[in-house]
Amino acid sequence: MTGFDAADSAVDGLGEIDGTWADESEFAALDARIEADEAEGRAAAAQPVLAVVGRPNVGKSTLVNRILGRREAVVQDVPGVTRDRVAYDAFWAGRRFTLVDTGGWEPDATGLQASVAAQAEMAMQTADAVLLVVDATVGATATDEAVARVLRRSKKPVLLAANKVDDDRLLADTASLWSLGLGEPHPVSALHGRSSGDLLDSVMAALPEAPREAGTVTAGPRRVALVGKPNVGKSSLLNRLSGEQRSVVDSVAGTTVDPVDSLVELDGEVWRFVDTAGLRKRVNFADGAEYYASLRTKTAIDAAEVAIVLLDASEPLTEQDLRVLTMVVEAGRACVLAFNKWDLVDEDRRHAMVRELDRGLVRVPWAEKVNISALTGRAVRKLAPALRTALSSWDQRVSTGQLNGWLSDLIAATPPPVRGGKQPKVLFATQAGIRPPTLVLFTTGFLEAGYRRFIERKFREQFGFAGSPVRVNVRVREKKQKPKAGGKAARNR
């Protein structure tokens, strides 16, 4: 049951409401019901980690999608689409585990590919078990043998998947993979799903019940999505915060394709940051990896608790910036606006920004704002307090009695506008949920959108909620129809 449903069912137990405000004690049962409902399942158990590694274009991301049972990892028929290590929640045989997809590993890579290889090596070091994917139609290459040597030294469970075994004729070819020294090769077809269940059974046997390094925070780190248009500095900011080359950075826009998870310690607290692909201006016209990357970005926003929206302070606000903000607001996530590249802003640009923000950010006047430079590190430590403020507001609750006491004074001073010749009456209100905070007004008639925005604005002035969206919903109570004399009710007597 959701908090919204809990509010409705709890309201039914309050009896008839005649429009007079009740004492706070009369709403105690309602508040307790909603809060108990929200508390269910918040803390998630720690999950073991399986890293999927291998050289480029052997079908790692296709196999990841097969294991997940859905199209999450970006797949395209060219090598090198996956560039960062990307974590997904997976489930098999009653157990949950974290599945990490990586870019293709090359031992002698240079430039951008060297960064990709470093990400794969980091995944191997931090995982509880490793799944090495090899192209069975090609056999063991020099790169496969180099990866196998690294994995044999890692002293952790390693499974070998011989991919692209689409029919029985290729089964004999997998025998040569014993030479890698990683045990029995598991012949699978990621594309068609052949023997993927048998492979997962072996994975479950190899994975420990709990991760090697369990976190100290039982509820898990707070999830932060880094979003913004391409080349605004998202990956650079993540690298600055983590103190390492966690995301692949290049001067070419669109280097990040998949959302990238990172555990980052910031201001004494561990956060789970997700670096996302830049959202394009017209996703409907995108194709291939770019199209699916945009879908993954939306999924990352939905899975996050708070979003850091990066804006280029050195340039005017664009349609892409506003589109990103709209996605965050519609997803109901807490929000921090980070104006990046502040080191490039001069006095004239600052005056122009004031006018731009008044016009362009009218939908999010409540968002926390921080001026930073990912390149120089300017003020990036101010992000942690802004994130805490936004998340505190996102989790904040106002008791039903306190809310109704304030609302009665507000409505007495400024009653709702007349609609259809009748003035709607607000019977009472409750905060039916958090994450995001959601107010439900029970009324005798519909409230205009302008009046709902007025209530939200006054609600913020009274109770705060900086950095979090607030939703105001209206429930119109239907009048109970009295049975007519001689009708069905009378005939049944």
Task: Tell me about this structure.
This protein has a 6-stranded mixed beta sheet with strand order 2-3-1-4-5-6, sandwiched between helices. It has a 6-stranded mixed beta sheet with strand order 8-9-7-10-11-12, sandwiched between helices. It is built from 14 helices and 15 strands. Helix 1 (3-12) runs antiparallel to helix 2. With 493 residues, the protein is α/β, with parallel strands linked by helices. The chain has 3 domains: 3-41 and 397-476, K homology (KH) domain (GMP Synthetase, Chain A, domain 3); 49-206, 3-Layer(aba) Sandwich (Rossmann fold), CATH 3.40.50; 222-394, 3-Layer(aba) Sandwich (Rossmann fold). The model is unreliable at 1-22, 40-45, 74-84, 214-219, 248-258 and 283-288 (pLDDT under 50). It comes from Amycolatopsis echigonensis.
Summarize the structure.
The chain is α/β, with parallel strands linked by helices.
Order of neighbouring strands in the sheet with most strands: 2-3-1-4-5-6
**How many helices in DSSP terms?**
14
Total number of strands: 15
Content of β-strand: 15-25%
* CATH architecture field of the largest domain: 3-Layer(aba) Sandwich
What is the 3D form? elongated
Rg of Cα set: 27 Å
| CATH class annotation of the largest domain | Alpha Beta
Structural class: alpha/beta
Taking the alpha carbons of the first and last residues, their distance comes to: 37 Å
Low-confidence segments: 1-22, 40-45, 74-84, 214-219, 248-258, 283-288
Task: Name the CATH superfamily assignment of the largest domain.
Answer: P-loop containing nucleotide triphosphate hydrolases
For the sheet with most strands, the description reads: 6 strands, mixed
Average pLDDT reading: 78
The helix-strand sequence is HHEHEEHEHEEHEHEEHEHEHEHHEEHEH
Task: Indicate the percent of residues in helices.
Answer: 25-40%
Number of domains: 3
